[in-house]
Write a structure and sequence with these properties.
With about 190 residues, this protein is of the alpha+beta class. About 55% of the residues lie in helices and about 15% in strands. It contains 4 helices and 6 strands, in the order ααααββββββ. The longest helix has about 60 residues, at about 20-80. The protein is elongated and about 125 Å long. The N and C termini lie far apart (about 140 Å).
Length: about 190
């Protein structure tokens, strides 16, 4: 037997792969890894396209929601006084009807005016407009009252200083916000 064939025979007998077999196995592993990497890449590209599409849809939906909200706000501003104006229409009707009477007596005019004032107060209350009309002796509140003057009290008065003596003009709140403060006179310190 020739000498150079001995290692090949030993290799064949020992079960160890030949270099050609190792190269072929390595090429097969590389091909499998490449195929797996390509399929992962394709899956990632599909996922990326899906996420990009979802992002664009969400962005468009958010833009549409913002546009609808802006439209609703614009309509709310435009028609905010609609309910208030609607509640004042009977007051206007009453005033016009009163002016149409040519030969009304003072008593009729007074009754009509009182009825119209009642309608007006009712319309204001329905729209959360509440009068600020503090009674005499109430503590002066600078958030709801505006002091027009400070008046000295007679010595026999038991009213405390910095309290309301009289109301010159009612104030008004609208939903707990001061629309107009009440004009009041305030008791001076003694």
């Amino acid at each position: 037997m020739p000498e150079n064939t001995q290692p090949e025979q030993n290799q064949a007998l020992s079960g160890a792969p030949s270099p050609e077999e190792l190269d072929a196995a390595q090429a097969a592993d590389d091909a499998a890894a490449l195929s797996q990497a390509q399929s992962e890449r394709a899956a990632l590209q599909a996922k990326n396209a899906e996420l990009a599409d979802s992002y664009l849809r969400a962005k468009a939906e958010a833009e549409n929601a913002r546009r609808r909200a802006d439209d609703e706000i614009a309509k709310a501003r435009k028609f905010a006084v609609e309910a208030f104006a609607e509640s004042l229409l009977p007051v206007a009707d009453s005033l016009e009807a009163g002016l149409l009477l040519k030969d009304a007596s003072i008593e009729h005019i007074r009754e009509g005016t009182e009825a119209t004032l009642k309608q007006l107060k009712s319309a204001l209350e329905r729209n959360k407009v509440v009068a600020i009309d503090p009674p005499a002796g109430a503590r002066f509140d600078p958030h709801q009252h505006q002091a027009i003057s400070v008046v000295p009290l007679p010595p026999e008065s038991t009213q405390e200083a910095n309290t309301v003596v009289s109301v010159l003009q009612k104030g008004y709140l609208i939903a707990d916000r001061v629309l107009r403060p009440a004009l009041v006179t305030v008791a001076a310190p003694q």
